[in-house]
Amino acid sequence: MTRNTTDILISGAGIAGMVAAALLARQGRRVTLVDPMPPVAAAGDAGSDLRSTAFLQPSRKLFEEAGLWDALDAHATPLDKLRVMDTSGWPPVIRDTRTFVPDDLGHDTFGWNLPNWLTRRELARVLEETPGVDLRLGTGFRAMLTRDREAIVTLSDRSQVSARLVIGADGRASPVADAAGIGMRTTRYGQKALAFAVTHALPHDNVSTEVYNRGGATTTVPLPDQDGRAASAIVWMEDGPRAVQLSHMVPEDLADELDMRICHVLGPSRLATPVRVWPVVTQTAERLTARRTALVAEAAHVLPPIGAQGLNTSLADVADLAHRIAEAEDPGAEALLDGYAASRARDIRARAKVVDLFNRVCRSDIPAVQAMRLAGLKAVHGLTPVRRTVMRAGLGSEGDRQNT
């Protein structure tokens, strides 16, 4: 059997895996990137990821460093304000609304919103032409044997690749983590999240709105206009049975329910895509590394979809690992991997705890917890030093990233 040789094999050509491939190739590394699922061409295609991501300031800089932002810029919608609405009851009654602006941090915008399916499609186009990247879409990871100086990976087409480092960027059921014997700690909430896009009557004015009510947070994310109408991506967290019920509604009825849920801030809406549903969990890997192996992104951690923390935390993993590799002769050296694991584990644990608590508070229908949620929102927004600290922690900073 012919065995190819590469410096680094990445399993998982999601957004984090593709950014990692681009960064490492620009360092002069030979990278093999594999994934059994090629990107889709349009939102309505089977298997499309209808979630959207607000790429925050540090993530934008990472895309630029990887030479990828030019491919995304024309598709990105600025996120100029973050609006938080605390509601109760059904139909919901607004108890308070607070708006956060990037001026507090000296920025013109918090970030840039992009649909995940479109980001993956555009990044794949760039990587197909990137020197040093062997892009194998439609081929997946199958098995791995690690040795002191290399890992031998068998792929789904039965070919083999010898690599000095294997990066698992292959999702919450990571085959790389499984092959490395790395277990997962999982917290389940009995929630599911619905993801879809809508067009709507009122302009979004580049404002993302997060609405709290029983069952969880519902977030609207501004998108470019579609067919002459304003458009937004929706991520709606709900108790499991209610989420299933919503997912089976006809589009017109689901749009009506959404309008009530978000207190009509977008005006009457219409569904513009199919609806995707997935379970809401907090999941963290018991270890981030093994011999010649590192986990990043959802192979390392899965967070509830609150505050744009999920994929931006994933890109922080990629940045940390790539910057360590840039200074190393051996990308899979034990000391390098130990440093990565130690630094990222701290940040992942902290963010997982905060998002877990936040999700529990947001979804509660207990009056005392709702009162605490309202008081917390007022305190965070009303005290300028507290507001800036919370916003800075949510965005991440160049200093934080460099010190990880």
Distinctive features:
alpha+beta, eight-stranded mixed beta sheet, nine-stranded mixed beta sheet, 2 domains, 404 residues, FAD/NAD(P)-binding domain, D-Amino Acid Oxidase, Chain A, domain 2, single chain
Residue stretches low in confidence (pLDDT < 50, at least 5 long) are 379-404
Protein structure class: alpha+beta
Give helix % range. 25-40%
Q: Which homologous superfamily in CATH is the superfamily of the largest domain?
A: FAD/NAD(P)-binding domain
Number of H/I helices: 12
Level-1 CATH class name of the largest domain:
Alpha Beta
Count of structural domains? 2
Radius of gyration: 21 Å
Tell me the overall shape.
globular
* Strands, count: 20
User: What would CATH call the architecture of the largest domain?
Assistant: 3-Layer(bba) Sandwich
- CATH fold field value of the largest domain: FAD/NAD(P)-binding domain
Amino- and carboxy-terminal Cα gap: 41 Å
Mean pLDDT rating: 89
Beta percentage is 25-35%
Report on the biggest sheet: 9 strands, mixed
Organism: Tranquillimonas alkanivorans
GO molecular function: FAD binding; monooxygenase activity; oxidoreductase activity, acting on paired donors, with incorporation or reduction of molecular oxygen
Pathway: Cofactor biosynthesis; ubiquinone biosynthesis
Cofactor: FAD
Describe this structure in a few short sentences.
The chain is an alpha+beta fold and 404 residues long. Helix content is 35%, strand content 33%. It folds into two domains: 3-46 and 55-73 and 119-186 and 283-363 and 387-403, FAD/NAD(P)-binding domain, CATH 3.50.50.60; 76-113 and 189-279, D-Amino Acid Oxidase, Chain A, domain 2.
